[in-house]
Write a structure and sequence with these properties.
The complex is a heterodimer of chains A (326) and B (333). With 326 residues, chain A is α/β, with parallel strands linked by helices. Chain A has helices at 6-20, 40-49, 61-72, 85-88, 92-105, 135-139, 152-164, 212-226, 244-254, 269-280, 303-309, 313-324, and strands spanning 2-5, 24-27, 54-55, 77-84, 115-120, 145-147, 169-174, 181-184, 197-200, 205-208, 231-235, 238-240, 257-264, 290-294. The mean pLDDT of chain A is 97. Chain B has 333 residues and is an alpha/beta fold. Chain B has one domain (7-317): Rossmann fold. Chain B has helices spanning 7-34, 47-54, 70-76, 80-87, 120-135, 153-164, 194-198, 211-228, 272-277, 279-289, 295-318; strands at 62-65, 111-114, 141-146, 169-175, 202-207, 232-237. A 6-stranded parallel sheet of chain B has the order 2-1-3-4-6-5, with helices on both faces. The mean pLDDT of chain B is 93. The chains are: A alpha/beta (326), B alpha/beta (333).
Chain lengths: 326, 333
């Protein structure tokens, strides 16, 4: 184990992958993890080693996403970084209509082993167009895997799986996580999809969160403990495929469910999790399922307005106290 | 320019064109018989272009096509029975009935994909070109598309990307714009070629009704693409088939009677002008005039193709619809 930043952990996963597999090319590496606090010597060596496999493409998300599909079906494993997730909206047709559908509509003849990476979330004065959390939009489209890591260790292990997956994978990371630190296992390892993790054990209430919201949930759990509430924090880690079992097992233990989501709650991942639990574990519930997320408005710019719209530990604590009447 | 000289190669080109034509006729008949939709975009009248391209692709080359794809698929060598079965939504179809007319793929002959999104093939083929370059096997990627694609923003992005990274791609535009009707492309530029040319892509234009002219242009383009690892754009100008309509084709010109090539008195009716210059009859006339073939050779070739299509039809008709429960499988590897 070594303490590393989230950015360093993703870089390590990418380096190991590129070393092992010459068919991996990275589009948009410079806005991915490079220049984000990596040791300069590592970064320099990486760039020098892969001159023909690191591309800094034109600002053309539409064709870039399509190049991903066309080259993946032809035998490469492209890794495409869009930067901010809003930019990927320029390529929505290619991601949904081409990448997601290719395998099914070819009757299984094509495989599409590609990763689309993008940064999501409220980053601070990003305004409406740089604060998007599009995970549920992609989860709604068949054929796409959706991954939302929360810790450096998860980021490395999940990225190894994403790059080796034969399906198009949306690897969505939060801008604010890049500089966070955590213990990361040394060497090569992979974390399978659809395998969630209990980040903190508890018995009174289940809190489900992903990405940056896991960190907020853990903060909230500490505050709740002082109030005599023992919260369990569950991180499913991947939206598609989804580990329903880790959530349901926890709800069966605690009898209460609060879901923290950074996106608007309308047709959100939180809504889907609520539906799954209501359908499959209704009898285990001692109270209503509560969702905490951003209101259904474009993200405002002004810090005071933005703070009001941002889901965080404080709002989660309020919701849990209300549910438990404490 | 590389020219076709051998009699064998010329007849093979004609056979490819005839297969495309007879295939579409079978599609029209099957659609009428089974009353299904999804037969909107037929390849009739385009055969000179598709045959010239498909005849010159090598194993490992990648093809990406558009909604007007039937001719391309069977022209590249996909089994016509399985292609027809796919259009009819049958289990024996190329994609097991999951794709249909708009999404046919046959990777066994290097036919990567059909995208029914306007501009779909052009981006995917750019990815194919990137893969050809990275893998270094000397293969090329081909995008087949209509003139309407140049209205889409992705064409600009794709040309720029292909040019910047010097990718081995043939951009094959089948321009079937019909004078007097709503244009299928609306460009402020004077000509389609102005767009790729502005991005430093070598461009060519050719009469799509003359299969040997297309063959020569494509041959030259492919040689250049393979040698210099650059994209080339060809505009093939095609006289649109009068049966082609936005929502449903009409069999206005009827089944092709190959003897009209030499018995021109048979050509009558409102579409006589189109029939007189359509690419198959035109090529037959040329072969006869240059004594590359006799009438009997042509008739025998047509019979051979018709027999092949009869078998294909039987296969497709006999193929069952897919088991319904299978619908939920196959979205993920």
């Amino acid at each position: 184990m070594t303490e590393k930043t989230f950015a360093q952990a993703m870089f390590d996963a990418l380096s190991i992958s590129m070393e092992q597999d010459p068919t991996i090319s990275v589009f948009g590496a410079s806005s991915f993890v490079l220049g984000r606090g990596l040791p300069p010597a590592d970064e320099k060596a990486f760039i020098a080693k892969y001159t023909t496999r690191l591309l800094d493409p034109p600002v053309s998300e539409n064709v870039l996403a399509s190049v991903g599909v066309g080259s993946a079906t032809a035998g490469l494993r492209p890794f495409i970084n869009f930067g901010t997730s809003s930019f990927a909206f320029e390529a929505h047709n290619q991601i949904v209509n081409e990448a997601g559908n290719a395998r099914y509509m070819s009757g299984g003849q094509l495989k599409v082993p590609l990763v689309y990476h993008m940064f999501h979330g409220i980053r601070g004065i990003g305004g409406a167009q740089h604060s998007q959390s599009p995970q549920s939009m992609y989860a709604n489209c068949p054929g796409l895997e959706v991954v939302l890591p929360a810790t450096p260790a998860d980021a490395k292990g999940l990225m190894r799986t994403a790059i080796r997956s034969d399906n198009p994978t949306l690897f969505i990371t939060h801008t604010k996580l890049l500089a966070t630190k955590g213990e990361v296992p040394d060497g090569d390892y992979a974390i399978p999809f659809a395998k969630g993790e209990v980040k903190r054990a508890g018995k009174d209430v289940t809190i489900v969160a992903m990405s940056l919201m896991v960190l907020e949930a853990l903060k909230a759990a500490d505050q709740l403990k002082a109030l005599g509430i023992d919260a369990e924090v569950v991180d499913p880690r991947t939206v598609v495929p989804f580990d329903a079992k880790v959530v349901i097992d926890s709800v069966k233990k605690t009898g209460r469910l609060v879901i923290l989501e950074e996106a608007s709650l309308v047709c959100s991942v939180a809504s889907e999790i609520a539906a799954i639990v209501a359908e499959q574990a209704f009898e285990a519930l001692k109270g209503p399922i509560i969702r905490v997320g951003r209101p259904h408005v474009p993200m405002p710019y002004s810090p005071s307005l933005e703070a009001f719209c941002t889901p965080d530990a404080a709002k989660l604590v309020d919701a849990v106290r209300k549910l438990l009447k404490k | 320019m590389p020219e076709i000289v051998s009699r064998e190669a010329r007849l093979s080109l004609l056979e490819r064109m005839l297969l495309m034509r007879r295939f579409e006729e079978a599609v029209i008949h099957a659609a009428a018989k089974h009353k299904y939709i999804g037969r909107n975009h037929l390849y009739i009248g385009h055969e000179g272009t598709g045959a010239a391209v498909m005849a010159q692709l090598k194993p490992g080359d990648l093809a990406h096509t558009t909604h007007r794809n039937h001719g391309h698929i069977v022209g590249r060598g996909a089994d016509p029975g399985r292609a027809l079965a796919e259009i009819m939504g049958r289990e024996g179809g190329l994609c097991g009935g999951r794709g249909g007319t708009w999404h046919m793929t046959d990777t066994s002959v290097g036919f990567q994909s059909t995208s029914a999104m306007v501009g779909g093939s052009i981006g995917l083929a750019t990815g194919g070109g990137f893969a050809c370059k990275q893998l270094g096997q000397g293969n090329v990627s081909v995008a087949l598309f209509g003139d309407g694609v140049l209205d889409e923003g992705i064409s600009y992005e794709a040309f720029n990307f292909a040019s910047q990274y010097s990718l081995p791609i043939l951009f094959m535009c089948e321009n079937n714009e019909k004078p007097g009707r709503r244009e299928t492309s609306m460009l402020a530029a004077d000509r389609l070629l102005d767009i790729p040319k502005a991005l430093k892509i070598h461009t060519m234009t050719v009469d799509g009704g003359d299969v040997e002219a297309v063959h020569a242009a494509v041959g030259e383009a492919l040689a250049r693409i393979r040698k210099d690892q650059v994209p080339v754009f060809i505009e093939s100008q095609i006289e649109a088939w009068p049966g082609s309509h936005q929502h449903k084709p009409e069999f206005t010109t009827g089944e092709t009677d190959i003897s009209m090539a030499w018995d021109t008195g048979k050509i009558t009716g409102p579409h006589a002008d189109w029939i007189r210059q359509e690419p198959i009859l035109r090529y037959v006339r040329k072969l006869l005039a240059e004594k590359a073939a006799a009438q009997a050779d042509i008739e025998a070739l047509d019979k051979k193709v018709q027999a092949k299509m009869a078998k294909a039809r039987d296969f497709a008709e006999a193929s069952p619809f897919p088991q319904a429960e299978g619908a939920i499988l196959g979205a993920f590897a």
